[in-house]
Amino acid sequence: MAITLKAIRQESYPASYTRGNTLYTNQQVITCRSCEWEGEGVSTVKAEVLGKDEELYRVELTVDEANDKITDYSCECEDSLIHEGMCSHCVAAALHYWRESILQEQKQKDILGQAPGELPAVSGARVSSPEITSLIYRYSMREKARYFQPSVAGKVELEPVLKKYSQTWRLTFRIGMDYKYALKNIGDFLEAVENGEKITYGKKLSFIHERSAFTPQAREFISFLEMAYKDREELRTETYYYSRERYKRNPQELNLTEREAAEFFLLMRGKRCRFSDSTESGGELSVIEGNPPLVIEITARDDGCCMVLPRLEVLSSDESLFVRMGEAVYCCSEDFARDMKEVCRYGNWRECAHLEIAVKDMNAFCSTIYPMLREHAEVKLHGDIGAYMPEEVQIRIYLDLEREKLTCRLESEYGDKSFNMLGTFSVEDMYRDIARESRAVYTARAYFDNTGDKKVLTLPVNQDDRVYQLLATGMDQLRQTGEVFVSENLKKLSVRRAPKVTVGITLSGDLLELTLSSEKLPFEELEALLQSYRQRKKYYRLKDGDFFRLEDNSVSALAEIMEGLSLASRDLEAGSCRIPRFRAFYLDQVFREAKEGIEIQRSQSFKSMIRNMKSADDSDFEVPDHLKGTLRNYQKAGYRWLCTLEAMGFGGILADDMGLGKTIQMIAFLCARYEKEGDAAKPSLIVCPASLVYNWEGELDRFAPQLRKKVLVGDREERKEIYEHYSEFQILITSYDILKRDAEDYRSLNFYCEVLDEAQYIKNHMTQSAKAAKSVRAGVKFALTGTPIENRLSELWSIFDYLMPGILGKYSGFQKEYEIPIVHNSDKIAARRLQKMIKPFVMRRLKKDVLKELPDKIEHVVYSRLQGEQERVYAANVQKLLSQLEQPAGARSQGEKFQVLAQLTRLRQICCDPGLVYEDYKGESAKVDTCMELVDNAIEGGHKVLIFSQFTTMLDILKKHLKKKRIPYHILTGSTKKEDRAELVKAFNKDEVPVFLISLKAGGTGLNLTAASIVIHFDPWWNIAAQNQATDRTHRIGQEEKVTVFKLIAKNTVEEKILKLQEDKKLLSDQIISEHGVSVAAMSSEEIAGLLKEET
Predict the structure, then answer these.
(1) Which of 326, 442, 577, 807 has its CA 20 to 30 A from that of 819?
(2) What is the pLDDT of residues 947-960, one digit of tens each?
(3) Which fold has domain 858-1095?
């Protein structure tokens, strides 16, 4: 019985009912499903409703149809949290469920002739198609199976029982868990599985036939049966045999074809199966992966011999061979199946098979079949058949060079008899060793062509590739099949090994001088030789006809040097050339890989530079005394690496994983420089995204407060004044956007160091941001990024073009030599060359690489500064609260005290996004920009992220930004049902969704989210214990990665003061924070004003 409209109206206000009816009639109920609780007359309704704001809201209703009541309801929308009664989305879902229930009852009673007007009507309602009604039923049963039969999930077994009668294999099944029932109708069972029907087998087994209810093995059997029945349906109308004899004989049995029996045994490999046949009582059949232990008896006679095969039975599919012997079925190897399948076919299950071999066939039998029998079976020989065994063959292969072709003749000798192996066999030749002769002919034909002349094979001498293969590898392969004779003419054609090459390398100022010498290298053919190497050829054919092997180390090293350094052959013909010194490390790697055929002569200065770079971790660069922080060992290594690069005049990319402290390593480097040089050192420039400018300022205040720094903000005139006095500062901090706008001002400035944070901002070398960053004049340049390559190799080129212009050449050349070959052609040689080029200048450590050095949690405070409209809104609300606080504390009522607390909450919401307070706010939010920056970086680094906020409406705002970026997410708030919470957590820990939005109170306890390694607290809470409890949702037992926690704080706001209160443990426990949060009574007006006054 369906609920009535009265029940829906009783649980909603008129306005909500009207809006809900509008949503329903506009068909904005996207999905709706229900699940009835057995024996209780209560249904759970779950729906998705598209709201007027085009957001999709999840609704859940509990309907007591027997008592005509809606006993519970929930929705994700904000109205449901604020107002009593059902919201419009719940009303729409209830109306949809009511109408569907009416229509379902009508269908069941078969009152199809009733006029639509006789039914209670809702404007615009439609009757569902029968297909949709069926789908709703089946999916509802799935939901019901998920929630109401957990006791059988994955536990129901199908036990096969195999029978063999005459030549037919018959398969039946028993079903159950601890106790098994006979499966009486396989067809009905498969239909129940397809439709999700509930079937009762007996007192101990009654369940909905969802696939998830069955064990993995049972699901394999179901798929096997479905395929078998599908084959029968296709043949049913065509073949009387299938439609009458095999398909309809016994619904409890499935008569297997030979192919199906083989496929069944494939499923049963390594297992045992209940089995019976017409001659034996019931037992078990073992399915063994391996070859059967065949014993074949051969008895010699005067007129031939007799071969006896054991009792066996053969089953085969397209790819597999099974042999039944005794109480076992053997799944045979490919070799056994290839050689013995035809022999085993002559076996018989009832009795041993006797096969006679006449004396005239004994030679052929002994040369062809007998060797295979001995390889795969135990052969018991009675008598002597040695007289029929083939003589040992002598194979001779004659190779010659005649005019414009190479020739090959093959002969076999048996005592005093000689045969042309390219001719045809006669019956009298059956004693010959066909296997060895065939192998020799097959090998020869891999290098030579057949001709009309059946006595010789030929190969045109002008087919360089094939001639080289013959000389380089074919000769040896032919020698493995017989004795090879080479004519004097052919001996003149040879494959030369590459001559020894001597390479010298000397460091001369900012350049490297490279010298090359070799006595036998044909420099006049060098360009053509290297062109063959570039085409990945294994040889080069010299003008005299000989072949020059290009696979030798000296040639590959020489070609690698020339290609890697973009040198032309004329550069080496002169004997020496000069190249930039940043190529030193690339050359060193090439030299070390070329172990033979090339002699390297390195100057002492070159060796010293390489040694210093390789031992950067053990260098003498001490961590500066004035650094207010402790570097971990891997951070010290990064610091020394930066110092080593700078000392050599190189730049580099610090590409550590997110959360490993790239910022503090760079600050330590800058601190050391200014500690050593003092005021004599030029200023340094730090460029970062606008959302991180004040975070850099905060980190410098924290770790190097002694450095004179300036953030480039304000209007054009204010910034211009800073540029005019830039030498008064040691560190300037700016954003990519401001750098781009002020690019002209930087032309006259000189910096000691330029640092690009989140350097992927210049990944497109055509943008103004990239051009502006590269135009800055600085003695050394560094890039910080966790993702030096996001999508294309051109991004890496752009960053290196900023660091050291020319190291990867011009972009057109880089694209031709690296990007296209690597990306489009998967060129491993080009990929290895690029890796050699950049390896010394990139330092990247992942969290898993430094696990032992990391604490369990790495916490970072990330600052953002309010600007523009957001800053003005915040300032106005601060003034309003200060005015309230000017009233004497004693004169304030309890209600006014709560107003103060409410105003404090408004300030905190404005720090997050003014849109939480003002519906018509259209401006930006500094914290949202910072948060999305962190999310992007985390996802690019392969991390999953939890984002906590105590404001559920803030999560709604973040949802919109994630949707705009097409980033999938899960969300959990106080309105999320318990069962849905569990499903969401399970999904997030297993699926590819990278972001989980969680309200602090809803997600603070009871969740295990170990898939995430990044936690973002969007807003600070008064109660630090609750905030830490939320972090522990991912930092707990089962977490395999280190957890990085980011706390987003709006600079110079009440949030920063909350952070300071959290750090003051005594103040937290004694004055401000109680167990449940803020104690208004414990805060004086002066204390509240202290949170605000510095910001006015």
Answers:
(1) 577
(2) 999 888 999 999 99
(3) Rossmann fold (3.40.50)
